[in-house]
Amino acid sequence: MKGLADLLLLGNPLLYEVSKPIEQQELPDVKTWVSDLHHTMEEIRAQYHFGRGIAAPQLGIMKRLIYINIDKPMIMINPELTYLSPELVDVWDDCMCFPHLLVKVKRHCSLILKYKDETWSDQVLNAENDWSELIQHEYDHLNGVLCTMRAIDEKSFRWRK
Hints:
The chain is an alpha+beta fold. It has one domain: Peptide deformylase (Peptide Deformylase), CATH 3.90.45. It is 22% helix and 32% strand. β4 and β5 form a beta hairpin. The longest helix is centred in the first third of the chain and has 22 residues, at 27-48.
């Protein structure tokens, strides 16, 4: 089982790669990957006291998979952003791949995301505010983009207290 020790850290070249789509025949692997993502997120929460979602590439699983667990687990396979609002908001973003650093970025206030769930059924998520910000962060990981690359300016970094 993968966990915190397997989490890729800032600078690892895999974090900058675009992930590959998941094929339907890989659904049995998705269960294992989700278990690894869940376990890692629980370890992050215990050690650093944050963590709402994690993307598979953060564990070196180069597949288009997002796991979110706030009130209940959500599995997003092959997500696709179909709408981003023109309205933007400044947020201090954090990331498990550099847990002591916060980065100020601009995120869209709302979005629409299409994805497949763990039963390979089509789903649509309309997300606003905190949800929108979280989805954008995790979606970026699937495309090899880190929030450090979206920093508003050179003064948009601070240490977590």
